[in-house]
Amino acid sequence: MAIDAHLPPACAFAISVLVERDMDPEAVPEEAVEAAQLHLTTCVRCLASPPAISPPRKKKKPRRVMESDTQFETYTPTPYEEAAPPSIPPGAYATVATDGAPKPAPTFGEPSRPVAIPQPKQPASTVPPAEAAKTPASKTPAPSKLPAVIDGPVNCTQCRQALKDYAEAMDTGQNVELLFPAMHEHLLNCQTGCLVLLDLFRQEAKASRKFRRRPVRDPFSAIGWELSGFFRGGQVTISPMALAYGTLILLLLITSLSVYLSIRWDDARYYHAPLQKIIIPTPDGIGLSDGLKVYDACNASSYQDKREAAQALQARNLTRAGSLFASATSVVSTDTTGCNGAEAAIYSEDLQVRQSGRPYGALVVSFDSGPGSADPQGGTDRHILYAAYTQELVGAYIAQQQYNETAMQMPGTPLLYLILANTAGIEQGALQVANDIASLGASSNLQQFGLLAHSPTPLLGVLGLAPSSLVQVVLPVLCRAGVPLITPTATGLFIINLLLQTSLYRHCAPGFAFIRFSPDDAAQSLLASNYAYGALRVRHVAVFYDPSNPSSVGSADGFSYNFARRRGAQIVARETAVASGLLDANDALQAKPRPDLIFAPLLTNDVITLAQDIARLPAGRQPILMIGGEFVHPAALQGLVQWARQQQLTLPHIFVSLISAVRSPDNSDWQKQFYASFCTSFAAPGSHCSGAAILDQGGLLFADGVEIVTRALVPEKATTTPTLPKVPELVQRITKEKFSGVSSPIRLRLIAGILVISTQVSPVILGLQGDGSVQIVG
């Protein structure tokens, strides 16, 4: 009789769980162990005769495949158990010696190993010996992956050998009643640990279900796994994997080809001709020129004509050169980008002066051609090369042409010859030009400077060389050379203080003078502060200025001083702009109290940036913008209106404090002649040749500057044939000039022997209207 027959089912289950725990601690749930231990401590039968159970092993063993558990053979009925003496109490758990005599059962405190009943040395079998004798011996079959089929009654040992296959069949949803009929019937009636082991195997099968090999034959599923990053190696065989990668590559090729064809089709539909970038050579750099160099490359056709005319002049083909200069002058009449042909017109006028046979004096007109490079293999875009300062040449040419036309009607009257000087807007260029001018006045060979003028040609003076930062560099050179400087666009107060406080300028060569007939920064700032306080009724102002620009500093200081001394007026913020294009108005706009107006004596590019920043604010929070300074281009401000419309923004009220602007002409012959020549030769296509921004203030100031020199060449009350005066005499005549200029009324006088200023100046306040026009408002 088996040991199980001596024990109640609950006691046998607890003992089997603890024995199984001793074999493999990880194979038995902790809940089952706790239940078995609780049973042994509470069961009266187990307490009366406690079984010998070894303590759990501390060293864990790796998980292994379930094999036939030989230790559970201790509970299999043997002949020795059947022959055991009946004196052993039922359910008692005892050990049997080799001679078959029972021994007392040990207590729980005694260290012992699992109970083992020795077996006779005969082949182990899962059937009783009587049946084993009748069963012929058979060879062990080859291992198979199919579940084992067991015929006949099944005991616990046979059940546990196939229990793992039984659990996996249940986990996969198979009909275990058909596959394992004997085991199924045994498990239904089993009262020992088979059911616990079955539950453990089912949990293990469930946990390892997602790691089983499941062949995937759909290539698109494999593609999805690859793209999603959850591909698991070994689950896709090589054939579907290769098909998946091939399909993915094919899809990518088809997509790329489709995109390429669609782009080509779109280009063929909307772009019938290939896009070509038009590149023209860059103009010449720093230096002097009267026809051999080209400084203005704004219009491509005009630039090419001037280049060919220069080559014709070097070849002494004067007829062809004159024709090309005339073509370059007229070709820009249909240009709407702002280009003009003044440079070609001056070269053409100089050519006629050289061919006239009359004596002539030279006036150097200095200007800034823009950021062009002197590299003949250049490639700068034409719009970058365009410089608004080329309008200065328009005023200079009109004054030259008007004077020469009148002088040609008077026998022996000297003519005026203009030499262009390009400083490129840098100190090095201004200093180089100043040194060339100083050498030019003392040289008898002008060809060494690349000029075509006959030698000797008297040098009458220099017009331009602004702004103030360049003027202070060239003043010492011109002082030592005795060359007068006419600079209406330089900062008056800054230069005047420099001349009066420096001892060098008290010992200049005869003929040197600094001539400025335009309003200085003090006059402009006073007008701007009066208009802001009186007409605009502004009480809180923020000021922006450039500390590196003397004109900007002077304008800001003058405005702040004149505005702050008024009743209730306050300067709430004072900001510096140290780099062009990097203005930030946030700090000033957040000042307390909030500014009603921003006064910005800055260059045009900085002003445009500031106006665009203000336009992005809500309309109710936009302060008025007032611009001041030595040189602002009103035409550039007109582009803000178009920009605001494209961006669907509202521009703030913009006002400009300027030196001069186009005004209605009076009865002066000079004004009538000037505007008549400008409207017929240089007015932009479609314009009415009127309005404050029709001509930049540089053109007006340079026109009056040349007019001052020509009036000194031929006095109104001359009794004899005029001749070219010496430079000191020319300066003395200039100090007495009084006439109505196109920029403002001019009344000149001499101060300290070298300063010539105007006692009647008239700056203006311009307002940008909603339609883009610029009008004089104050």
In short:
The protein is α/β, with parallel strands linked by helices and 778 residues long. The protein is elongated, with a radius of gyration of 55 Å.
Describe this structure in words.
Helices cover 43% and strands 10% of the residues. It is an alpha/beta fold and 778 residues long. Helix 18 packs parallel to helix 28. The strands form three sheets. It has a nine-stranded mixed beta sheet with strand order 3-5-4-6-7-8-16-15-14, sandwiched between helices. The radius of gyration is 55 Å and the shape is elongated.
List the helices and strands and how they pair.
Blueprint: H1 3-6, H2 9-23, H3 30-42, H4 44-48, H5 79-82, E1 95-96, E2 102-103, H6 129-134, H7 156-161, H8 163-171, H9 176-179, H10 181-189, H11 194-207, H12 219-228, H13 238-270, E3 287-289, H14 300-314, H15 318-330, H16 342-356, E4 360-367, H17 382-385, H18 391-407, E5 415-422, H19 427-442, E6 459-463, H20 468-481, E7 485-486, H21 492-501, E8 514-516, H22 521-534, E9 540-545, H23 550-564, E10 570-576, H24 586-589, E11 597-600, H25 604-615, E12 624-627, H26 634-647, E13 654-658, H27 669-681, H28 697-713, H29 727-734, E14 738-740, E15 745-751, E16 755-758, E17 764-768, E18 774-776
Parallel strand pairs: 4-5, 4-6, 6-7, 7-8, 8-16, 9-10, 9-11, 11-12, 12-13
Antiparallel strand pairs: 1-2, 3-5, 13-17, 14-15, 15-16, 17-18
Helix pairs in contact: 2-3, 8-11, 12-13, 14-15, 15-16, 16-18, 18-27, 18-28, 19-20, 22-23, 25-26, 28-29
